[in-house]
Amino acid sequence: MSVRIAHISDTHLGTRPSQGVKQNVWGVEMRTRLLENDYYERFSELFSLIEASNPPVDLVVHSGDLYNSPWERNPSQPPAVAQETAISVLKNFIETTGIPVLILEGNHGLYRTLEVSLLDTLKLAVPGLDVATQQDLKKALAAGEPLVKTYDKLDVYCFPFMERNVLESANLLQDFNDWITTHQRPKSKRNSIAVAHGMDLDKTLYSDIFSMSYDYIALGHDHHQHKHAKNAWYAGSPERWRFDEIRHDKGYLVIDISEDHKVEINPQHLVYTRPVHNEKISIDTEDTVDSVMSKLDTLLEETGVKGDWDSSTAARIRIVFEGSSPRVNSLDLSVAMETKRLDLLDRDSVHNIAQFVWTVKLPKAEHDPAAYPEIESDYLIENPEEDFLDYLGTVKLDEQYDSSMLTRIAVRALKKGVSQDEAKLNLEDITEDDSS
Predict the structure, then answer these.
(1) Cβ atoms of residues 295 and 47 within 8 Å
(2) d(CA 82, CA 248)
(3) pLDDT tens, residue by residue, 28-75
(4) Can you tell me the distance from the alpha carbon of 233 to that of 243, in angstroms, rounded to the nearest whole number?
(5) Which end of the chain, N or C, is surrounded by fewer C-beta atoms within 10 Å?
(6) Which residue ranges form the domains of the chain, and what is each CATH number?
């Protein structure tokens, strides 16, 4: 029996960019701020598009991070409007179409010190909604039972977010891997998929999942929509959560699985009215603060952000300053940029800009925290694996060198540098990373 699935992920409802944001502008008057509202609109748009699918889908799976908070940097629960949006959109979709929806718990929207889940509360409010939480995973692991949801046409094996260091500190890592291979293995010839929230980069994607012969693996956590392995894809985030994400297409996936287990993946991409710019300005040896600001004026002219205020098309802009000059220091540049920001975001500004932030990458210079938006990456290099692979593509490597191994070494070195880990970096560590 063939089955059709819509795969969405990382909707991050309740995200509230605050740094460098134009003040006193609303997405919905007295309810949601402008950029916060973009996430609610994308969520509603996703389900409207899925509802219009022809032929219709049999199931919608959300592979984690429905809400943006709580998480490490923000322990508070999602805004009331985020929860209202989730309830209203999901309830309307299920009542209108009769199509079931399954939501997995990711690392965002997860209470790390409480034995409760926001998804359980959501399930009580939305008849027909299925959820799989970290608490469900803990119970299944303790009981030695599968964490599986059964539908008319397929079985869905669930892998909510679970940090490796939690398993290691409890001496449960081997038990967890044994649970995957023993209890999460498909038991029949029915179509089956897995839904998991994790990445290789932070070691939260467990390799045994890929040995279970699922027809498809729906992944979340990485915001870049892409194929990870055979019949395993990240759906990506539908909204631009970080500035560097403008490099990637955004949307969702439609998966068709035939009765004889052949799989076809069809990426669906969204079109945006709000421009997002992630631009670089070089600081050359002869530059002064004035000349750097002139470069900024030229760049703003080229991006086409001049015009009357329009809340639907007001741009988000990040400027990355690279290079150095003896006549430019970070303090003077920050003062000039703060003044520029006030001008650009003023009510009477001739520029249609909703957010303006910057990053100064000067040698031996401290970064002004105010220059970073809340949605910045955890790493100075925003996507170290992809950036290093891009670099390797520009150089000629001897055939004896493996680019994937070199990339793993570089990423591990960066992570150790950032965390100031005193442990030695050796080949055994890299090899273990690759096999885990």
Answers:
(1) no
(2) 25
(3) 999 999 999 999 999 999 999 999 999 999 999 999 999 999 998 899
(4) 22
(5) N
(6) 3-269 (3.60.21.10), 276-371 (no CATH), 384-435 (no CATH)
